[in-house]
Amino acid sequence: MSADLENQQPQDHTLIIENNGATQPHDPSHPVTKVHTDGDYVQFGNERYLRSELVEAFGGTLNPGLAPPPKHDFANPAPLGLSAFALTTFVLSLINCEARGVTIPNIVVGLAFFYGGAAQLLAGMFEIAVGNTFGGVALSSYGGFWGAWAAINVPSFGILAAYEGEPEQLRYALGIFLVGWFIFTFFMMLMTVKSTVAFFGVFFFLQLTFLLLAISEFKNSVPCKKAGGVLGLITAFLAWYNAYAGIANPQNSYINIKAIPLPDLQDRSK
């Protein structure tokens, strides 16, 4: 069945309007698609897909909702972006936890520039190229976050030097910086509530991480910073889990990920 789906010829999507049980195309030149559900199948415009094919491994593709298989020859860029985000977050979070007594975060600068930054940004651009708006916005934005974080810790940018002699103002500035990312992540999290547990978990724990780290700067609280580090580690492992879900398949691994969908609150309310 999956082979039949893969061999399905791409067609132009049109807006489908239901009229007394029948469907008819409306304005064929308009690139808008109406989604229909029919038991085990979901129809996007003129194309029909198995529902099981559409909901599999949301986190592995960074697609937060039902979508047809992509019509392109690119590989899935989401695992690269997720892996880059996960490793960079993992290392910084361990330092925030003061693992092995390490408190100086500069070892993360290289990762933040080239892996969490450049590689993740590149993955985000490819997500946009394959038509995944959510994945493109998420990966490109967090790639920008890591680049900005690295710049703060590089003397030649002069960011820390601008606050020389004003440690309290520096802490407040960093807190404001982190609050902005908390707000952004919170809204991204709201767009994953119809996806899977692991996918939602990445953004849920990430927004809490940003919030605790922001509070630690405002309050100059080491325990709060360590708590943020712990949540950051959870976030990193969830990101790796989703990356694995996007790469592993029966052909390359004996351990495959089965997506656990979040409850559909709309169905329960009916």
From TrEMBL:
It is found in: Membrane. It is a multi-pass membrane protein. One of its GO terms (cellular component) is plasma membrane. The chain crosses the membrane at residues 74-95, 107-126, 146-163, 170-191, 197-215, 227-247. Pfam families: Gpr1_Fun34_YaaH. Its main location: membrane. InterPro entries: AceTr (IPR051633), Gpr1/Fun34/SatP-like (IPR000791), GPR1_FUN34_YAAH (IPR047622). GO terms for molecular function: acetate transmembrane transporter activity. Keywords: Membrane, Transmembrane, Transmembrane helix. Belongs to the acetate uptake transporter (AceTr) (TC 2.A.96) family. PANTHER family: ACCUMULATION OF DYADS PROTEIN 2-RELATED (PTHR31123). This is Ammonia transport outward protein 2.
